[in-house]
Amino acid sequence: MSSTYINAALRRLVASRAGIHCEYCHIQEDDTFLGCQVDHIISEKHGGLTVAENLAYACTFCNRNKGSDIASLAADGTLTRLFNPPTDDWASHFSIVGFAVQGLTPIGEVTARLLGFNTPERLLEREAL
User: Fold this and answer.
1) One Pfam family from the UniProt entry (predicted)?
2) Pick from 5, 57, 60, 89: CA 20 to 30 A from residue 11's CA?
């Protein structure tokens, strides 16, 4: 989360673009207990700007787990960037198998792991929905 104030018009734009769901895990905002927040994809501390192209609509769990991270290590040890909602196609990087969100690419794999898409609590949440 950012210390920068995100004005209401920019927040509405990002939420509308997202279809009012988390752009990372795809949960609908109405199905979350804590709602969604606007996330800086590249955090301000890494030089990210508060512009629509650098903002994502994220559920509280994805936003907190992501923090200011922009990459993680893939299974082969390669530093791999995280999923970028405004520019990456979700279905190219993830699929839903049962109640789990599976990474289809190294980007999908590191994002799913780092953001905790498949923790027991998140799986139960999806099952209940």
Assistant:
1) HNH
2) 89
**What does the pLDDT look like over 26-41, one tens digit per residue?**
999 988 878 899 999 9
Question: How far lies 91's CA from each of 4, 37, 40, in Å?
Answer: 31, 22, 22
Helix, strand, coil in percent for the chain, rounding step 5: 40, 20, 40
Confidence of residue 125 (pLDDT cuts 50, 70, 90): confident
CA angle 93, 49, 80 (to 5 degrees): 30
pLDDT attached to residue 42? 96
Give 44's DSSP letter: G
pTM score of the predicted model: 0.89
